[in-house]
Amino acid sequence: MAANLLRIATHEAENQLALSLRQAFLLLESNLRPPFPLTIPTSEEYQVLNCAILYGILTQPHHAKTHIKHLHAVVSDGYAFFVNLLVQVTNELLEKLVDSARNQLLWVTGEMVDVSAVGFDALLVSLLRQVVGGDFTDGNLWLCFEVATLFLSKWDSLLEEEPMVLTSGLYAFLRLLADHCRVSSRNSKLEALVRLEIEFCLKMLREQFHLCLKVGRDVIRLLQDLHHMPEFQAVWRDLVLNPTVFGTSGFLGIAQFYSTRTSSRYFLLRIPPMMETHLRFLLTQVKLGGQKRHQAWFASKYLFSPDRETLICDIVRFICCTHHPTKEIIQSDIIPRWAVIGWLLKFCRKNYVEANAKLALFYNWLFFDERADKLMDIEPAVLLMVCSVPKYVEITNSLLEFLFLLVDNYDMEHKEMITRGVLSSFNCLISKGVIHTFDVLTSSGVIFPLLRERLATFLLGMKAGIAKELRPIGPS
Amino acid sequence: MFCSVPGFPRCMEMLCLKDIAPAAQNNINTQFILLDKGRANLEGGQTKTCLALVADETAAVHFQFWGDECDAFKPGDIIRLSNGIFSYNRNSLVLRAGKKGSIEKVGEFTMAYVETPNMSEIKWVPDPNNSRTYVQEAVISAYSRVFPPVL
Hints:
Shape of chain B: globular
CATH architecture of chain B: Beta Barrel
GO molecular function (chain B): DNA binding
Strand content of chain A: under 5%
Largest sheet of chain B: 6 strands, antiparallel
Number of domains of chain B: 1
Order of helices and strands of chain B: EEEHEEEEE
Shape of chain A: globular
Helix content of chain B: under 10%
Largest interface: A-B, 18 and 18 residues
Order of helices and strands of chain A: HHHHHHHHHHHHHHHHHHHHHHHHHH
Radius of gyration of chain A: 25 Å
Distance between the termini of chain A: 69 Å
Protein name (chain B): SOSS complex subunit B1 isoform X1
Structural class of chain B: mainly beta
Oligomer: heterodimer
InterPro entries (chain B): NA-bd_OB-fold (IPR012340), SOSS-B (IPR051231)
GO biological process, one term (chain B): mitotic G2/M transition checkpoint
Largest sheet of chain A: none
Keywords (chain B): DNA-binding
Structural class of chain A: mainly alpha
């Protein structure tokens, strides 16, 4: 008799992955107890045995120790196949797993870290992606707590074997912390989670600063959201006034973060796999003009509960920096990225959410360097501004106003760097033909006169060639 | 003509919605996305039913949910129909699972669709060459008159 792995709703088709694990278990059930057969399995038998053992571990918590011993005895591929199964289960099934199986999944993940299984870092990344931002349900907070505990309790192994997975943890927990510390009605569970997240993030920043530096500029964007927390105020002070305290030779200041583009895989950490599938479908299959129903379904699934709007900045970051469409898609009638972002901005109800979403949209403009940055990261913002002029000029006005607000106020200490970045952005967008002229922004009567003038003056700087004299950024 | 459905086992042939015609047979295997759902009614004061708009890449059609199906699906769900029937029910032409067929949710969101033609909004007449089958005579409405397109 095989116990259930999943909670299945009525009229829901059987999941193929769960079915194949269950079938393997039923086939080999009698071999899963000691004495284990001594024969060496063929590669196909080996895979079926891995499936059977995994099903046993997930559904028979009381026999889990026996199953894992069995696995340790037969393993011949550094656990690569087994870990890959765990990644699939995490990506496809985690939401539907019965509670005991979820517990087991976390437990066996810890075991895989302990034996330095091949690919365990990808498994941890999959788990991080399953923790949903702005979701305060018990199940989600439990998962977050368990994953944070895992990152802290296995710290030494992670640092030794796969230090870069710690940077994924940093990105995810800095971002989740911003959501978790904002909720006013915190219960004791949430308090404990927040403490754990702070502990992990501070440990990273204080002890492994050189790793944090590798994540790049978005670390600063996320830290800003935590500026009101005393623990992070101290970090800010040191970043600005006392950079040598981080013990990373060569680190002279925040500009070093600014000048490093954050790799696209970090943005995926805040987009659960199913949401990624849905976003990519929207951006590659749904035609402009026929998107209303898909957009409504997306919003009702991911954005409607009140705390979920904080996801918008993560989605904007994903669309700008991770989902770069092909030329064929750009030239087709598929809904363009800027239109999806314009639609998402309408869901921002709170001011700080809207500001964060706009910052996410413009962030790479501020530090743009043609040699190191990607044009596709900055393309949606300019197209959204230009294409909104005819029918939604209030969007153009508010974005342009926000961009200049950033130039003037985002970081006064680095105003010159930011001005140079924004000028380079405009320059590159024109020279690469994303848009042919800024006339629509500088001479359209519906744009606020002050903004028009400001932009025209600002662009004079570009014409004067300031943007072309790109000086090296960072330590000199 | 059969629709290709990625990931669907080839052993079961899937009909495109544009190729269905009214018949008194439970033999329609197809897959579609649920676009809209009406309010549930009690048919004959007994069983709950619910009219819905479903579609695939080739056509749309009205689908009738029955009993506990009414609450099990939401717009955006991708549904597989096995051994379904497309026939008149109280003067309206609907696709449904019927007593011999079944429906199950196989996914969500990732399916493109069209809302015209709507196979329920077509006037069908018996085929003069074969009185057991129906052929299209006229389009009553390009789009569903019950669930108008969302613009």
